[in-house]
Amino acid sequence: MSAPANALFTRLIDTLTATPWGPVVTIIFQVALLALVARLLVWRIGQIDSAWIHRIWCTAILLSLAILPIHLSIGGWALPVPLRQLREPLGGSVRQLTGKQTTSHQVTANIGSSALALSRQNQPAQVAGHFDDSVASALSSQLATSSPSGAADLSATSAVPSVDTWGSLITTPLILLSIYCFGVCVITLRLWVGAIRLNCVARKGQRVGRESAEIARSVAKQMGQRSVMIRMSDEIMLPLVFGASRPTILVPIDFDQWSIGERHAAFLHEMTHVRRRDCLWQFIAILQRTIYWFHPAGWYLHRQLSVSREWATDQEAVWLAAKSDSNAPEVYAECLLNIVSRAIDAPRESVRTLEPALAMSAFGGLEDRIERILKPGDITSGSAQLLNRVSLLILVLLAVSTTFRLEPSKAQEVAATVDLESSARDEVKESGEEPVQAVWRIDEHFAKEDNGLFHRIKTCQVRETAVDPACVFQVEGHVVSASGEPVAGAVVVFRETESGRRPEGMTSRYANYQSRIRFNDVLARTVTDDEGRFQFTDVGTPNRPLRRKDRWTGHVVAAHPSLGIGWHYFGGSDDVVRKVPGVQIKLTPTESVSGRFTTPDRSPIENGIVSLVLIGKADHEDYRNHTIAFHRSELMPCVRTKADGYFELTDVPVGNFIAVCCTHEDWETGTGYITTSDDASINEHAQRHFHPASVLTSPAEIAADPGVILSGTVTDTDGKPVPRAVVSYGYSFGETQADDLGVFRLRMHRETVRQSSSRSRPNQIRVNAPKSSGLVSSAIDFPSARVLDGEQAAIRLRKGIAVRGKVVDDSGAPLTHASVRTTTANAGFPALTDDEGVYELMLAAVPHVLCVSTNQPGWQLPTFSESSFQVEPEFVPRFPNLKIDLTGKEGDDALNAAPELLAPIVVPRMRPVSLSVVLPSGQPAVGASAILRDYSLKTIGIADDKLSSSRVIDRSNQSTTDAKGQVSVLPTGVQTEHAYLQLRLLTDAQAFDAKVAWADIVGGQTKITVDVATLMTGRVLIDGQPIENARLSVGEMTPMMRTVNGRTFTGSTVNNHRWATTDQTGTYRLPVSRGKVFSVSLQKVPSVDMELTRGVGFQSAVAQTLVVPTYELRRGTEAIAGRVFDVRGISIEGATVEIEHTNVTSPYLWIDHKKNSRMITDKEGRFHLRNVPNGTYRLQVRSPRDPVTRRSASTSYVSSRTGNMHVRITLDHVSVDQIPTLRPVRIQAFDAAR
Asked: Which of 174, 327, 1148, 1220 has its Cα between 20 and 30 A from that of 550?
């Protein structure tokens, strides 16, 4: 190929692969091809069946509409384009770009059209738009040599466009897009005017006569459909029908004077249109023609659909009429000819302007219609039906096979990038000028008000109600200001937080913060009334698979532009309908937070995205209930940084900390925690996320993370590269794919990698070899320190042997979706069995033991979570396995060799165990619950008295006995010798339970008698009022002794937790075993934002009932405040002040008490205890803890009544500054001779 032709070819391919012209050209080609093939198929069918001809044109139109969203979403099949001379033109373009006459905006345009496309596709697992280092350096060189003023000129032209820049914005694509939009608007307006005129004609029309109406009813009855509205008008000359949802038939004004046969034929024809839903297909055809108005094939498809529609309607109408009249074809054809002849003198314009309607006959093609009516084809033959179906299948396959996108081949992209880099460097060396950093501009823009939380709450999108909700909320509450006054006009939204928001296939760090892909987590929105009340009724939460209902979490967020923002947290629950009354949201005044986003060397980063992702109190014990996250949320405020890196976030509640994420294409994410006011304190209760050294004050300076790159090669034992190998690092650093040279490159957050180095087990590089490579997937240890040092990883994959086997039960039935793995380390990754129980593994040429695990009940196999025990040597013989030896079977033809067939792995199947449960009286125990419980597999061989610290797990689903006391239990996983069946029954007056060893049941025991148990009961009250749906945890307390450094400590552990829920009277009831100690703790109270209470131990009595002391929650509005001094009168910072807990006083049962209390004195020795019920209390004051012993030196007790805001407390403590430790310094004698 000559140089000009090669350059033209390269430019064409570059345009089709790196610009939107590629999909446009492909769509135009597909629509034309669909029209051509449809015409050929219709020609082949000929006179056989008019209905199938119409179906072919309908299918062609639907396919032409379907390919458009496919190209916009996934792009279709990837079609690599071989560019034989790709290097030379790109090299030439680089040399042209580095010339002195090239302007900066020309450089940017050339970058976007050529080199950037290569850098995007050269890193398949990284962010689209990221530069490779080599490409970035080359482009930097181009920008440096293109303008004498360097980066300053480029930023200036980007920020303030010149006349030339504005001229460059008016490009050919923009002009063509404007013409296309203008054409769409013209056609849409024309159709809209026609639709309005049709409705006006129908409204002004007259009703038909009684005889005509009777004919219409008889035709509708014959067709088995309801009657439609019929009107006469003097503005039309032919019968027509319009309206997809409410069809209307219009007939000429002299319709009643027509013959009975003509009126019958007209009604039969138009009602056949209604029956076939032709008005809907007409709308779809108009939509297709509007989208493709510029394409002749679009008009051709619309025309052929209209013609075939009339053919199909005539065929069906004649078929219906022939049931009662054998001469129906001749009579129908005669009537059609008479109707058209009568209207032949009508003005043509009066019919054309009513295009949305379906007229009985157009003036063209009448001869073909008459011929098809009088000479119908044989539509009942089997060959004709088969031909029709094959025709539709051909159209669908054609559309699927031609939906492709053009891409340069990967190998040539790498070569082109290398040539681009070397050519640019050579030109830079010759020019002698310093390169500047390449600039990558983003087109997306945020609204100016998006930096405010109130604006996001007021304008966010609300998701539609879920069709099959996981649970339904009914929430009532009120919003109050910081002073307690009701707030009218506050905007309140109901949102969810546990949603799995990461979009499928979205790996871009930068794109996670774009407004266009925000996760729509807002389920409802309302406004408070004059008394500050709000209500959400029947708000359904989305039902997602594999997510437990009791793990759903959400918030109700309230905002007022002048009074502030507040929220209320909702935890999980098993209830399908959740009624939450009495929610109170107190608004917190807001403030703005500002800062700068910079590089590590403090240079400003322009056009970065700053997102507010979290608001919370760092020093609160109940961190979850007092923190709200907005990551990827519809409510997340975002703002772009200015030229100096400055940003500002508004409407941020004071007294909190906010987490801010700053992102940019060229840098890793920078994060920072910023205080919103001076009273946002950090003390001993601060969470691990907040440290005094990492918290900033506004205006804050947040530096981007420079990032770290893990790179290396993946080769086989012969040194050949392994393309398309998937490489991942650790558990949370993402993954990438090796290119055609086996080179991989994974960019990660440097600080996250550094923090992971503190783990006891080093991170691993896991490599999944392509299935067709014949190599064994492997994992190698690669500590974080080696990544931070920039060390490259050289990974060699061994040749493997493909094996295939099957997992079956004793009868030969397959075990599906089970995991099969080898116990040999780094010798192959697990595989799942298919629907036939077949698995395929690629294993190294060494001895193996294949083990099986599954989560399905009824198999004597470990579960997936316990499959790690299978690789332990002592556990291998306990489970079904298959031993194979592949030593010496590796060969050069392993890639093409057929998989080696293995003997099946036979797994014993467990049958359901049927039991009969009876009461002590011998009557059936109806409604008793049965569940199999056990300990972890690591407890095999451990004595029962050593199980106190082991966790109990469920080995079956909970079952309930039927009316005969029968129950069936099917275990899951492998049972240890400690497994037992737990039976419980609760009646109105008594409680029963039983605990039977599973080994006895397996041994043949089928009848179990439950024993009389103790009925535990208690109540939960708030200020004396019962609370419904309060949740409590009840667990068995087991004594435990532990010896440390020769000293023995006695304590207890809590296990076998069970849940109890209060009823309308605030009472909870459940059966417990006699003679054991139980711990009861209040976990959650609806509409109350509270902390988890301490567990209270109770000895189970021999009596039938055990009454637990009532949990009496109290609301307090009083406060106690003061200062703490030492014996010298100096204020003490860091002293702990709290109300003493006694048998009468329980501060942890005071709602919102600890949340709004500062129990640690500040620098002035001040403390403030809020939300205290009215009364006199004893304050416990402890001096600051010693940093070494972690003990308080002195403690004091002072009595005070609520309302006393000037309590003075003196501790027997002296505040002394820590004496600095002196370091020894070696002093050498002065040598005078030197």
From this structure: 1148
